[in-house]
Specification:
By secondary structure, the chain is an alpha+beta fold. Helix content is 30%, strand content 29%. It has a 4-stranded antiparallel β-sheet with strand order 3-2-1-4.
Length: 129
């Protein structure tokens, strides 16, 4: 709810973002997400003319659960909000660096097929701007 505090034990960092209108992306990335085929088909049919956004996210576990003070812009249908930078300083990555790099390379290799066809566009991240 808008303005309510949120308790956090995990945070995520978006490390890559792409958009595509190609439903084949779901099969290409099936090893990298927990969603069922039924849920993904529902999403594709919900707004069939909207492009799909693919986010590559690195997860971090906070040393201690943190409370994020509620703010009006945290409410509504949002999946992502910007968090204070100091939270990451008190967190440990879920995957070690070697495992993360292997996972990231495998994800990007799976997406390379669509990119080669011109069916995938990178979305610049704020740090890339």
């Amino acid at each position: 709810m808008p303005g309510e505090d949120a308790r956090l034990s995990l945070v995520g960092e978006v490390t890559g973002a792409w958009e595509t209108g190609e439903p084949d992306v779901l099969a290409l990335l099936s090893a990298f997400h927990p969603w069922s085929e039924e849920l993904l088909k529902t999403r594709l049919n919900w707004r069939p003319h909207d492009k799909l956004t693919v986010l590559e996210v690195r997860a971090w576990r906070l040393e201690n659960e943190e409370t994020l003070a509620g703010a009006p812009d945290h409410g509504g249908c949002k999946s992502w909000i910007h968090l204070p930078a100091q939270l990451r300083g008190r967190a440990t990555p879920i995957m070690d660096e070697q495992a993360w790099q292997a996972r990231q390379a495998a994800t990007r290799e799976a997406l390379a097929h669509l990119a080669a066809q011109g069916a995938l566009s990178a979305i610049p991240l704020p740090d890339d701007a």
